[in-house]
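Milestone M4 deliverable, item 7.
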Amino acid sequence: VYCFGRNLSMLDILGANVFAFNALGANLRHSHVWWSFGKKIENWLISPAQHQIHHSDNPKHFDRNLGSALAIWDRACGTLIKAHQVGKITVGVGNNDRGHNSVMDAYWRPIYENLQTPWQRVAKAANKVNVFNKKKPIIEVNINDKTVK
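Output delivered:
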C-alpha cells in the first residue's frame, strides 16, 4: 500500500515482478558474471549463465537456450542446457564465423542464402553436422545435372 497506494492491480504486481527479474537477472545476460539460478529454477527461467551458454563458441551449445526469459519452450523442444551441465565456456563465433564482416553483409547474406533453392538449403543444413569433423557430406542433391553438397 505504501508503494502503490490503495488501488493495487494485478498489472502493478506483474510489472513489479518483471522489473525485479530484469534488475536481478536479465541485465547480467551479456555480462561476464556467471550466475546460475540453480538446477530446479533453470527448468523454468533462463539464468544469466544459461544465456551465456547460448553465446558459447562450442558447437555443442549452438542453437541452445533460445528463450530470453522462460526455459519452458527450450525444455519442451529439447534445446535446454542448464548451467551445472557445462564447464568453462568461451563466447563468440570462433572458427564458425559466417563472414558477417560488414553491416551490409549482415543484412544481405541471410537474404542471399534464402534465395537458394529449397534443395540447396536442405543439403546445406544437413551438412552443418559435419562442418566440424570434416567427414563426407551427408546429402548430395543433383539439380539440373549439378551436384550440390
